[in-house]
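Lecture notes, continued. The same structure-token format from the folding unit now serves as the input rather than the output. Read the line below as a description of shape only.
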């Protein structure tokens, strides 16, 4: 880059960090909808999406991150809007943060199809035990007590054989839910991937893991291992660890408030349009789960990702969650600014607006009424 262009990222991010230096908050009433119609849900899922990319390291049906339980321990309930990436680990963070609404943004169209499969299963399942039964096509436990721990739940399902009959029945219900009830405009490729993912859960069962297609790589943690993971205090944290955690996610799914989007973290539209949507409704992003996506971005894409983060509406207490821990989103953006000043990855385009950095704090969100998040262990 010529002249002072190498400092553009740092300068832009510095402008977009007003409240970290005491700038006045913009207090607004949140108008996020309590429920989305099927048409509005599909309009957001398509309208915010970018052209799909590829990820060749894994089919990524399952996370391989085992440190989430300790990350969850001090995450606390933040309300607002959650943004995440990847497969099932988002449900665990959603159950912990308890947002009003969530967006799952992933460069792979297959991930959106996977989340539509999950959406249907959450809606179809009567409860947590029924959900595990249908996800893995194992007959439902007949004498499961309410409040059964995740450890006990998966230990009992470990000895139950898959049933093609249940798989076929659930597959029909999933298609009917998505195509007939919701009337989503799924493509043949979407349906093909939904079938692929569902059959993988059927064949591999609770032992399914991230490296299932990579025999030369060590196997990642299994679904069972992830769902039964405990923090350092011995408390389980996954979305299947309790009826309450599962019920929260199920309720958001039933109200069409977990929206899967095809998008590149370093892309020009997906994250920015989500940020604009949240801002237009007077709310904030309370948690952004980025996993280790930055590892797969080139220098230019990483600079664009930093700018996209900086343009999200947020508070000083919004979180950025990585694959190995968390930090405040403002800290993450400040680190991006420092990296940008050293390497000058990208320039601020003519459409950039420094005022996007102001963080609205909705009056009707109890977690932000005093300007502080109520952290709960």
């Amino acid at each position: 880059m010529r002249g002072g262009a190498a400092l553009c990222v740092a300068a832009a991010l510095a402008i977009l960090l007003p409240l970290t230096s005491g700038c006045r908050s913009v207090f607004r009433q949140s108008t996020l909808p309590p429920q989305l119609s099927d048409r509005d849900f599909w309009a957001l899922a398509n309208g915010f999406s970018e052209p799909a990319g590829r990820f060749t390291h894994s089919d990524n049906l399952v996370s391989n991150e085992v440190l989430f339980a300790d990350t969850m321990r001090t995450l606390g309930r933040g309300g607002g809007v959650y943004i995440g990436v990847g497969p099932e680990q988002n449900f665990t963070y959603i159950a912990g943060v308890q947002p009003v609404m969530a967006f799952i943004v992933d460069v792979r169209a297959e991930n959106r199809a996977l989340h539509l499969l999950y959406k249907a299963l959450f809606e179809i399942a009567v409860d947590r035990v029924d959900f595990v039964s249908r996800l893995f096509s194992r007959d439902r436990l007949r004498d499961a007590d309410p409040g059964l721990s995740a450890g006990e739940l998966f230990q009992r399902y470990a000895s139950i054989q898959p049933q093609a009959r249940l798989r076929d029945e659930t597959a029909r219900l999933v298609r009917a839910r998505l195509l007939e009830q919701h009337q989503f405009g799924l493509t043949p490729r979407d349906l093909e991937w939904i079938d692929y993912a569902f059959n993988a859960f059927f064949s591999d069962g609770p032992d399914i893991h991230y490296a299932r297609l990579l025999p030369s790589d060590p196997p990642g943690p299994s679904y069972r291992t992830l769902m039964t993971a405990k923090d350092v205090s011995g408390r389980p944290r996954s979305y299947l660890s309790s009826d309450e955690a599962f019920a929260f996610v199920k309720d958001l799914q039933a109200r069409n408030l977990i929206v899967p989007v095809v998008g590149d973290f370093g892309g020009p539209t997906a994250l920015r349009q989500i940020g604009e949507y949240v801002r237009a409704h007077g709310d904030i992003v309370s948690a952004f789960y980025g996993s280790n996506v930055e590892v797969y971005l080139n220098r230019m894409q990483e600079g664009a990702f930093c700018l996209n983060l900086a343009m999200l509406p947020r508070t000083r207490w919004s979180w950025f969650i990585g694959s190995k821990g968390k930090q405040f989103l403002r800290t993450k953006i400040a680190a991006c600014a420092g990296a940008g000043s050293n390497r000058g990855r990208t320039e601020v385009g003519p459409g950039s607006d420094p005022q996007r950095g102001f963080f609205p704090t909705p009056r009707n969100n109890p977690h932000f009424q005093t300007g502080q998040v109520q952290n709960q262990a």
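Point for the exam: Residues 36-296 form one domain.
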